[in-house]
Specification:
The chain is an alpha/beta fold. The protein has 21 helices and 30 strands. The protein starts with 9 loop residues before the first helix and ends in a 6-residue tail after the last helix. The structure holds ligand 6R9. The modification N6-acetyllysine is found at residue 608. It holds the Pfam family AMP-binding_C.
Length: 648
């Protein structure tokens, strides 16, 4: 914890939407009268049929049901595009910056309209209708945003799968939501390297043989050669040539699903987090405006990938709902050089910059010079998301990148929450490095102890949210039981975030990280169970247990304890083979950083692996193993300690 406090800069106190006093008053109003508050706020988007019911939500055990603006009718693509046309047809909606610094494009709202309509018509010609699921497996190119908005325009439900996931992971996601249409590109391009997206789609379809995929729409990106299956596969540019740039936006109910996004939990396969239309858009739009203090004419850049929720809410939906100019970046922070982010900021005069602690830490290691040789004069506000930001990285971001004039908004939220829940507001909140500070409007965080008792004042425990907000997920796709079990059974009547948290005497929240079996690697969520099941699928592995350990750049690294089949000898080659195996099974983000071959794992007499002990060993805290007396064979612990792998 850092005890430094940064006051709101004078310039900010003047320009921002809200000062501290206004924040407190508005927050009070939002929790005193949610119906009145959101009833007004819901009008920030356009409705074809206005709502009369604002909030209809219940966290009741066994009967969780979440509905906002339920009798309203609208369309997300209409709100993100058409309604801006009378005033902003020629304003740039999307600035695209390619992996190769010589490539960039600007797309106006009129062009966005035409492109999205064309894409929607291509889908409509392939029988995509309201409620159908469409899988999008694409790199960061404007066509990915067109594809998302085209689905929204038709009332189809998109499921974006991160381009770094393997064919196996993609197959699981196609199967789970039964999507008959897949949109991809020939290849992706990141950091100068090509990613065989279309070939991965072909492999995934072969694996998901129980699902009938009718159409694969392929956008040409690199021109690399791909196999096209006649009748199933179509080049987007050929199909788009045959359609018009007009396509009506299909009116949908506020609770009509907008998208599914798969995310890792503590058990089982990734869950399909389902977000719906009206409440999600109102919340994404409102948070984007206030948290980033977005004003007319600002150029806004979020570096996330559209494969993650941050890309959904804060590259596409929030900014476009607000008529903003949003920058989409295809590349990576260190290609061609470590100055890339800052050069892009200068090139496009970016005012608001939102990135992840892992990127900040990696760039910090490269020293100040790659930053200071750029101007960054356009920058006004910095943001952070994805994991706790350590105070050292915060200070560097503030001092070197923002030259002490840009506030940092450390935004805490989750795939499940749809938008930011705990965050500073730049004109209102004094900052403490490492703290996400205070709740956004309408959000009621509570800190509870293990028994669910609500703690008051300064305290530490688990973070829950006491009542619903409009951006909240509505269900796990196809499995409402799992939704209730995962989020509402630990502390009945409350939404359990899975995060630990401390609240200080000023009422500031400090997120301490996951308290469940989810690890956060470079801001990406991985379930330990997923990595374990990939490892045990290898013929030489008998058992595996995976935990997180502190990693200087990634935040957490993946530490795997592996027990081999009888007769198999541990070796460096086998270690490499297992790392590659997991990369192939799940994707590069799941690669174990350290593998320890363990003849036995610490188990209770009932056979449960005691992860607490494995975590302590991986964290290098042998002195503090706690009670080991319930272990079936306490001697395995000594062997584990003596063969601990060293951090990289
Ligand atoms: C938006 C996103 C969610 C988990 C969340 C928490 C961690 C995100 C954070 C943060 C501390 C922040 N997290 N933002 N922890 N401070 N500002 O990242 O969604 O991928 O679902 O991850 O990330 O542990 O529970 P998602």
């Amino acid at each position: 914890m850092s005890d430094k406090i940064y006051d709101v800069p004078a310039e900010w106190a003047k320009r921002a939407f809200l000062d501290d006093h206004a924040y407190r008053a508005k927050y009070e109003a939002s929790v005193r009268d949610p119906e009145g508050f959101w009833g007004e706020e819901g009008k920030r988007i356009e409705w074809f049929e206005p709502y009369t019911i604002v909030k209809n939500t219940s966290y009741a055990p066994g009967n969780v049901s979440i509905k906002w603006f339920e009798d309203g009718v609208t369309n997300v693509a209409w709100n993100c595009i058409d309604r801006h046309l009378p005033t902003r047809a020629d304003q740039v909606a999307i600035i695209w910056e390619g992996d190769d610094p010589s490539q960039s494009r600007s797309i106006t709202y009129q062009e966005l309209h035409d492109e999205v309509c064309r894409f929607a018509n291509v889908l409509r010609n392939r029988n995509v209708e309201k409620g159908d699921r469409v899988t999008i497996y694409m790199p960061m190119i404007p066509e990915a945003a067109y594809a998302m908005l085209a689905c929204a325009r038709l009332g189809a439900i998109h499921s974006v799968v991160f381009g770094g996931f393997s064919p196996d992971s993609l197959a699981g996601r196609i199967r789970d939501c039964g999507s008959k249409v897949i949109i991809t590109t020939d290849e992706g391009l990141r950091g100068g390297r090509k990613v065989p997206l279309k070939a991965n789609v072909d492999a995934a379809i072969a694996k998901a043989s129980d699902v009938e995929v009718d159409h694969v729409i392929v956008v040409k990106r690199t021109g690399g050669s791909v196999d096209m299956k006649p009748g199933r596969d179509v080049w987007y540019h050929e199909a788009a040539d045959l359609v018009t740039s007009e396509c009506p936006a299909v009116p949908v109910e506020a609770e009509h699903p907008l998208f599914i996004l798969y995310t890792s939990g503590s058990t089982g396969l990734p869950k399909g987090v389902l977000h719906t239309t009206g409440g999600y858009l109102v919340y994404a739009s409102m948070t984007h405006q206030y948290v980033f203090d977005y004003h007319e004419g600002d150029v806004y850049w979020c570096t996330a990938d559209i494969g993650w929720v941050t890309g959904h809410s804060y590259i596409v939906y929030g900014p476009l709902a607000n008529g903003a100019t949003t920058l989409m970046f295809e590349g990576v922070p260190n290609y061609p050089t470590n100055s890339r982010f800052w050069e892009v900021i200068d090139k496009h005069k970016v005012n608001i910059f939102y990135t992840a602690p892992t990127a900040i830490r990696a760039l910090m290691q490269a020293g100040d010079e790659p930053v200071t040789k750029t101007s960054r004069a356009s920058l006004r506000l910095l943001g952070s998301v994805g994991e706790p930001i350590n105070p050292e990285a915060w200070e560097w971001y503030h001092r070197v990148v923002g030259e002490e004039r840009c506030p940092i908004v450390d935004t805490w939220w989750q795939t499940e929450t749809g938008g930011i829940l705990i965050t500073p507001l730049p004109g209102a909140t004094r900052l403490k490095p490492g703290s996400a500070t205070r709740p956004f409007f309408g959000v009621i965080p509570q800190v509870v102890d293990a028994e669910g008792g609500v703690l008051e004042g300064a305290c530490e425990g688990n973070l829950v949210i006491a009542d619903s907000w409009p951006g909240q997920m509505r269900t796990v796709y196809g499995d409402h039981e799992r939704f209730m079990q995962t989020y509402f059974s630990t502390y009945p009547g409350k939404y359990f975030t899975g995060d630990g948290c401390r609240r200080d005497a000023d009422g500031y929240y400090w997120i301490t990280g996951r308290v469940d079996d989810v690890i956060n690697v470079s801001g990406h969520r991985m379930g330990t169970a997923e990595v374990e099941s990939a490892l045990v699928a290898h013929p030489k592995v008998s058992e595996a247990a995976v935990v997180g350990y502190p990693h200087d750049i990634k935040g957490q690294g993946i530490y795997a304890y592996v027990t081999l089949m009888d007769g198999v000898e541990p070796s460096e080659d086998l270690r490499k083979e297992l790392v590659n195996w997991v990369r192939r099974e799940i994707g590069p983000i799941a690669s174990p950083d350290l593998i320890q071959f363990a003849p036995g794992l610490p188990k209770t007499r009932s056979g449960k692996i005691m992860r607490r002990i494995l975590r302590k060993i991986a964290e290098d805290e042998f002195g503090n193993l706690g009670d080991t007396s319930t272990l079936a064979d306490p001697t395995v612990v000594d062997d584990l300690i003596s063969h601990r792998q060293n951090k990289k």
